[in-house]
User: What shape does this take?
Amino acid sequence: MLAAVQQTYGQYTPPTVLPPFPGFVNEWLRKDDPYMNKWDFGGSVRARYEVKDGYGIPGVPGSVDFRAHNADVANDYFLERIRFRAGYADKWWSALVEGESSLAQSDQRWAYANNPFVPGTVAKKGDGPEADSIELHQAFVAVGNHKEFPVSLKVGRMELSYGEERLIGAVGWNNIGRTFDAAKVRWQNEWFGVDLFASRPVIPQNGVFDGPNDYDFFSGFYATSLKVPKNILDVYFLARNASPQAAAAVPSPQFPQPSARDIYTVGFRLKSKPGDLGPWDYSLESAYQFGNFVDKRPGLLTPTQRLDQSAYMVAAQGGYTFADVWATPRLGLEYDFSSGDRNPFDAHHETFDNLFPTNHKFYGYMDFVSLENIHDVRATLSLKPTPRLSVALEGHGFWLANTHDSFYNVAGVARGGTASTPGTGYGVNPRYGNFVGTEIDLVAGYAVTRFAQVEAGYGHFFAGDYIAQSLANPLFGSQDANYVYAQININF
Assistant: This one.
């Protein structure tokens, strides 16, 4: 129930056919033997074709987002993801093992471009950052029964997903996703449920069995209560402790690894319960960070100096659903803010750390932006013409929170460092305007059968003043960006 009510109203969600499809193998096994209801065998296949124009291609010299001249910024490729699972659930314990094969063809992106350069790591072309041929995605054991005892334990490799996944998510859109080697204790009663967890994020490496980053430790608690009238209340405290060795924990990581930091995040989220406010809905989330941080952007302070962390974020959204109108349209408005660094040359760091989010849901489906040093104004229109068809139209306006800080990509990595020559790349340019640009997205999904769904989308990013000024040199120039994708998902 908690998983269902945690879904964000404003984001696009693919259509589903009820009742949920248990899988062909499960249907066959359970048909004549009720005991087999304890077992779960199945999986999924997802294939997606993406076309990108105006995107930087990591590993290709001179290729940066929105560059118009003298560099390759066009990339189209195929991604496939296959997952197989086997699970067992008894009264007091359960277990799950899930394998994954993530494949890619024609992707020009390097698996690890090593830009900006990280000492102790090596650039790797491979098949791109979303290829990981054979891996163990999840493998865990859980002990407990909340109907009879308030405490349970879960240990192993698992996905972590909390709230709307603004700070902790499984990144399901990515061809690989995100998992943690973790231990999680849950205490649940009639007033609240709280998870206390300790974990290390798993580092994807194509051709190498994925292991955790032994120098990046993520822990905390996340509590949820349904006792606030007409609302769901989340309260959390999160700690991310990464040592200087974390950035080079493996030779060629496919996801960026963190610089040294000891960051602590305290926050809350308040969200209306579905239907309790009639046609209206809303959510409000805010978090504050403190601790220390090593800023690795070139040209700033010494690479080992610990900076005092003081940063925050706010996300507020509301909407109205016309329940008696064809296609039950919902109109929504959202504002997201995360602080940026006002002075990159002092002993303070004020850029919010986005932690482990699923940013694809919130800040444009073209995946240019993360919740770092940004203002995002988002307007949404979602339609459901039939139970099997979902359509969403969205618009975003982006501004840097502070032009003394960088423009961060969807992975939370600063674009460029300090531009050596104005107009030749991104960096810390306080004289430039803070308007990044606008994005329009159109997404549609259709449930073809109870086990197969198709989805397609188009996005266009109109480059703003900050981008135009950053790439103003005639050899560079700026352009808008376009994105098209088509996807099919089959569950079995």
